[in-house]
Amino acid sequence: MLPYRSKKSVLIFLLPPLLFYGLGVLMPVIQSLFLSFFEWDGISDMQFVGLGNYAKMFAGDAVFWQAFGNSMIYMMICLVLQLGGALLVATLLMQLTRGREVIKTLYLLPAVISTVAIGFLFQRIYSMDPVGLLNRLLQVVGLGDLARPWLSDTHTVLAAVSVPEGWRFSGLYMLIIYAAFMSILAEIEEAAKLDGVNEWQLFAKIRFPYIRPVWITTVVMAVTYALRGFDIPYLLSNGRHGQLVTTYMYRTAFTNTNYGYASAMSVFIVVECLVAVGLIFGLMKRKVDE
Amino acid sequence: MRTMKTLAVSVLAAAALVLSGCGTSTSSVKPDDVNPEGEIKPHEISWLLSRPVDGGVITAMKQIAADYAKDHEGFELKFITTPDRPSYIQKLETLAAANKLPELFDIDATPFAAKLAKKGSMVDVEAMLKDMGLYDDYRTSALDYQRFDDGSLYMVPFESQVEVFFYNKALLAKAGVDIPKTLDDIPQMCAALNKAGITPITMDGQDMWPLERFMAYYPFRESGNDYIKKLKKGEAKLSDETGRKAVQWMADLGSSGCFQEGFSSTGYADAQALFTSGKAAIYNTGSWDLPTLGTEDLDASVRDQIDYFLLPVTDGGATTQNEYVAPSGIGMAVNTKGYDPLVRDFLKYALEQYPKVYGATGQVNPTTGDGTTLPSNATDLYQRVVDESDNVGDVTAMPWDTQLDSTSNTRLQQELVLLVQGDVSVDEFIDTMDGVIAENGPKAFAE
After folding, report:
1. Could B208 and A240 be called an inter-chain contact, meaning their C-beta atoms sit closer than 8 Å?
2. Per its UniProt record, what Pfam families does this chain match (chain B) (predicted)?
3. Cα–Cα dist B430/B248, whole Å
4. Phi/psi of residue A138, each to 5°?
5. Over 70: is that where the pLDDT of B24 sits?
6. Which of B20, B325, B305 is nearest to B145 (CA)?
7. Per residue in B213-267, pLDDT tens?
8. Pairing mode, strands B163-168 and B280-286
9. Contacts of B207 in chain A (CB under 8 A)
């Protein structure tokens, strides 16, 4: 229990960040909520439409639901690449005795490259004419028939914009998971090995349950980042195909100047993130209880 | 404690003064108050524009502004350019929403611009040019391109371009085809070129508007600009005969493989390179590309093979061969907020000097009189395309991206890619777009 003076000090020190949080995060959310009840093109007078924008979003806009479906697929691909890849690499790193630092650094590198550079890089990789790296590789290995304009083909564009995002942050999550693995007491693992557990059992029964709190954090981070994913999809496809809710919202606001409807979508994204986080915590808690 | 209070009050008072100063430093005039009274006090002004940094307009205006600054100490024209058009429009619309547009800004004659004009945010350019005694110097086509549907003029043109189809004679000969006489000849020509292993038409799909130009061609040839003027308001439909013909033609272009594979993710530089490297047979672009296509800088093997043709006609169409897309580029609007004697004086000086300076950069002026000085290494093609500017007919095709409301335009650009790629059928395309335009068009153009 903190003494009274200490509590006061804590409150004083917490106040500035809370103030910044309120101004930087809560205010825009409240503003968006307010704007979502209006129709506004940015220059004419705002017109109150009540829940009209929400009604349109939920019942009258097929593009929105298509974008929502795309966002879900985008999130799944990102999660598999980011969390699956991170878990796999972190586990493999635990087996290595030499060269860990080099691999860690190389794997982390994409996370520090600028988004625009990644966008240009993958535009070149996916290019069909001039032939990009991916299509060239397919030709070299005799799979030239699979070569295609990955960013123009409506069947591949969504995966093509998801992969760079997954690739980019898998190193970061690998580092977090690897650090969690490293914090497991060596005695526990040694005792388990003496009891005769194999590598899979060691992972499934000892390591993974031990890092569960860190895992939940990374899942929450990866899910919310994926639901808010915007920059790479926007840079690579510019919303031509495979539109996500975020790119659709951006286009609705800043190209179509329909700020009210775009605000309704932004409110949807906030709620969607909160629901996703709630579900993750709920599921994880149930698993622990079981 | 008392000192702290005094300090806090002083800071607040200073802040209030600064803020109130910010709010009242720029005066505003009525759109038709084109010659505001008062002393010319030199200060910095800004131009938010969407033009290439090293292009003719910025080069010329930089020189003119520097000359003006010599006699007006303290004056400076600040250029804030975003050549990428979609990004520029987003920036412009955001600044307009925040009421933070600078003294001068680029804008097309779009419905959004019309709203700004209606709101009183733009100076009446026709009145301004007449007041400056410059109105009659401008080409009619250059001014008409900038006008709103009601004939009002709120943007100053700075260019005069013609959009033609450059083609590679050797590649067409190799495929055994002639240049198309009618629009309906193009799909057949594409099929023949594809058969010969040649990319028929190179397309900058990333910018979206080049493909949208093709959508405008058939209706323009059939009925001039009447169709798009009605379509954008929901008074005509794509399911009408003219619209359906245009959509079918676009689908035919796609099924004939007219554009390079993956065209929708090809950017401007790559699209141009396909033509200049001799891989693509046709490149539909404007005279702004002449410094690349019409000079000796281009590799001789391609340079000597380049010629051009004008937009093919349709059988029994309403427009003639010399009527096609001849834009005067994005126009410059003058903000009523900040329009003072200095801005007026500078603009008068700049617009008087501009034709001579701009013409010297090898570009065609939006005014008559001062001609174009061709670059020393210009080819014969350069001169011939420049000469086309004087032969443009009475009607010029209005690009659809400047006509439709932004929501319909965005959706059209997306759906067109799907139509040409064969991802949606003609009927699906028509159903979708008629629905989108019916929902947004009438609202955007409501009086």
Report:
1. yes
2. SBP_bac_1
3. 10
4. -60, -40
5. no
6. B325
7. 999 999 999 999 999 999 999 999 999 999 999 999 999 999 999 999 989 989 8
8. antiparallel
9. none
Tell me which chain A residues have a C-beta less than 8 angstroms from the C-beta of B119.
Answer: 43-44
**CATH architecture under which domain A51-289 falls:** Orthogonal Bundle (1.10)
Residues of B in contact with A241 (CB under 8 A): 264, 414, 417-418
CB-CB neighbors (< 8 A) of A124 in chain B: none
Tell me the β-bridge partners of B374.
Answer: none
Any chain A CB within 8 A of the CB of B423? yes
| B65's tokens | 């502004």
The mean pLDDT of chain B is: 91
Task: Determine whether the interchain pair B112/A127 forms a contact, defined as Cβ–Cβ distance below 8 Å.
Answer: no
Give SS3 for B106: strand
Q: Which of B93, B205, B413 is facing A257, going by the closest CB pair?
A: B93
- Mean pLDDT of the region B36-45: 94
pTM: 0.84
CA of A74 vs chain B CAs: smallest distance (Å) = 19
Angle at A77 between CA A267 and CA A266, to 5 degrees: 10
pLDDT at B22 over 60: no
B26: which DSSP letter?
A: S
Beta bridge partners of B147: B153
Q: Is the ipTM of this structure higher than 0.85?
A: no
Q: Which two tokens stand for residue B303?
A: 């340079």
Q: Which domains does chain B have, with CATH numbers?
A: 30-160+328-372 (3.40.190.10), 163-325+394-444 (3.40.190.10)
Pairs of residues, one from chain A and one from chain B, whose beta carbons lie less than 8 Å apart: 89
Interface contact B264, partner A, CB < 8 A? yes
**CA–CA distances in Å: residue B23 to residues B18, B140, B319, B333:** 9, 40, 51, 22
Rounded Cα gap, residues B378 and B375, in angstroms = 5
Q: What is the mean pLDDT of each run of 10 residues along chain A (290 residues)?
A: 72 90 91 95 91 94 94 95 93 86 89 90 89 94 91 91 92 93 88 88 89 91 92 83 91 91 96 92 76
**Residue given tokens 């040694």 in the structure block:** A190
* Predicted confidence (pLDDT) per residue in B361-405, tens digit: 888 999 988 788 899 999 999 999 999 988 998 889 999 999 999
